[in-house]
Design goal:
Length: 184
């Protein structure tokens, strides 16, 4: 965004410098023009369509290294078998967190151990060994709100083996969550 819009917040209460740093200085100015940073990352596919991948500040700490979930998801989606992916951190006693991926496959592919290994290796090739998912769970769909946003907090709870808590009233299809629970 190059210009403010009606209803846009004008500052952070009591800290206008933080507002400027957070939203207007993240992207270097060009020709004196500042750009608003929304905090979401996107990629453009070969057909020219933009795919909003998620928050760029959503990170997993693996063995002291901060890895962006968006980059790992993007690497997974770049494989021809993957239609959609969501990555979360799962607590790990040795590494702090490990990468846990929920993957929805293209209709022409079937989930199997060989494909899981292939996807892990694909992530290693695209990003590096630290980003290799510890586990990939295949799913027909991911839990989303009615507006299409993936409910990552639910996925984090599932990955950690915790009971789902909190408000789930915005969940579009509760059966997706039940199917993912059965896969544990």
């Amino acid at each position: 965004m190059k210009h403010p819009w009606p209803g846009m917040m004008r500052t952070v209460y009591g800290d206008p410098d933080r507002f400027r740093r957070t939203y207007w200085e993240h992207i270097p100015p060009q020709d004196g023009q500042y750009f608003y940073f929304a905090g979401d990352g996107a990629r453009q596919d070969q057909d020219g369509y933009f795919w909003v991948m998620g928050r760029v500040d959503d990170v997993i700490s693996v063995a002291g290294h901060r890895l962006g979930t968006m980059e790992i998801e993007s690497a997974l989606v770049s494989h021809p078998a993957v239609a959609e992916a969501a990555v979360v951190g799962r607590p790990d006693a040795l590494k702090g967190e490990e990468v846990f991926a929920f993957v929805t496959l293209d209709r022409t592919f079937a989930p199997n151990d060989g494909l899981s290994s292939e996807l892990k290796q694909h992530v290693v090739k695209e990003i590096g060994a630290l980003a290799r998912p510890g586990e990939i769970r295949f799913s027909e769909a991911l839990p989303k709100t009615r507006s299409g946003k993936i409910m990552r907090r639910l996925l984090r709870s599932l990955a950690a083996g915790e009971e789902i808590s909190g408000d789930t009233s915005t969940l579009e299809d509760r059966s997706v969550l039940d199917k993912l629970r059965e896969g544990t």
